[in-house]
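#struct-help
A.M.: can someone run this one for me? Single chain, 373 residues.
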Amino acid sequence: MTSNRIILAAGGTGGHIIPALTVSTELKKIGFDCKFLSDKRGLKLIDNISPKQKASNIFASSPVTGNMIQRFIAVFILFFGVIQSMFHIIFFRPFCVVGFGGYPSAPPLIAANIFGLPSLLHEQNARVGRANLFLARGVNTMLLSWKNSKPVPPNIPILLTGLPVRSAFFDLPDYKRKSKFSVKSPCNILIIGGSLGAGVFAELIPLAISALPDKIRKSVIITQQVRKEQLSQLKNIYSEMSIKHFCSSFFKEMPNEMAKADIIISRAGAASIAEIAAIGRAAVIIPFAGSLDQHQVYNARSLTTEKAAILLLEEEIKADSNILTKNLLSLIESPKKCEILATRARSLAHRNALNDIIGSITSYQSLKNGGVK
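D.P.: on it. C-alpha cells below:
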C-alpha cells in the first residue's frame, strides 16, 4: 500500500511556517496525512495558527553564525536533529519530506537523504537562503517563488511555482482607477510594516506625508499598521495634520484592507510581495535594511525590475524623507500610474502556486512504499 504521509519541515519564522501550513492544509483536504518538524519557535506559531496540526520539536541551530565555539556546538545540535528526524521517518513512514527553509528544515532533509527518501525544497525569497543553498544539492526538486531567484546551485532540478497565497487575494476584482484623487474621491494609502517595519514606518512615513502640499494631504486617507506602544502618538500626528486616518496594531482582514488601497507602502517580505502581486496594487516597497543577505531587496526587485512597483531604500529615506514624498506625490497626481503599476503587479502573480507545489509533492507518492526502504 502506498503511503499517504508527508513530513513538512520549516524554520521558526512566519515566513517559513505560514507557506508550509498553507500547503499542509490543502494536502489534508485531498486525503494526505501531514506531520510538521520545527524548532520551539515554529511549534509555537503552528499552535497559534493551526493547533490541530501534528507537529514535533527537533534540535536545530545555525552553523554559520556566531564564534567558532558556537558554530561547533551548532554542528552537534544539527547532528542530534538528524537523529531525531530519522526516528520520525521510521515511525511515521512518509513517502517524502518537504523543506520550507530555515535551519530546522535541515535535519529532516538530511535524514531523508540517508534513507533514500524523495525530498523537495521550497524557497520563499528571491535571494536563496543560506540553509536552502546548502540543502538544495541533496533534494530531488527545488521549488522557487520568483524567476529571478539566485544563487541557484547548478545541476539541480528546478521548478518555478511561486509562493502560495490565500485565494481571497485572487478572488478580489482588478484595481479600478479613479479619474482624479480629491476630497470626494480620496487616495487610500495602506501602510503595512509587519514586525520588522511598523516601528520605523511610524517615524519615517508621517514625516514624508507632512511634506505633501496641503491640497494633496486633504485628498488622502491613511490606513497604517503600527505597534501598540506607538498607536496613540501616531494618531495624534495625523490628527494634527488634519489627515483622515485609521491606525491599528493588527488588521484581521488584510485582503480587504489591501483591496481598498490605491497605494500600498510595504516591507519586502516574501509573503508581502506575493500578496501585493496577487491583489494587484500600486506599491512603494521599502525593504528592511537589516534583512539577512539583503533578501528583502531581492524580493522587491521581483516586482521593480518588471516596472510593477517602486523600490526605495530605508537608508535613503532616513537621509532625505523628501525621496518618499516625491514618489508618493507622483502617484497621487497620476491615478493612471497607479493603475499601470497595479496591472503589471497582478500580471506577475503565480495564481497556481499552491496547486503546482501540491502536484510536485504528490508526484513522488508512487515511488516509495511506506517511506523507508
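A.M.: thanks! The chain has 16 helices and 13 strands.
D.P.: also worth noting: The radius of gyration is 22 Å.
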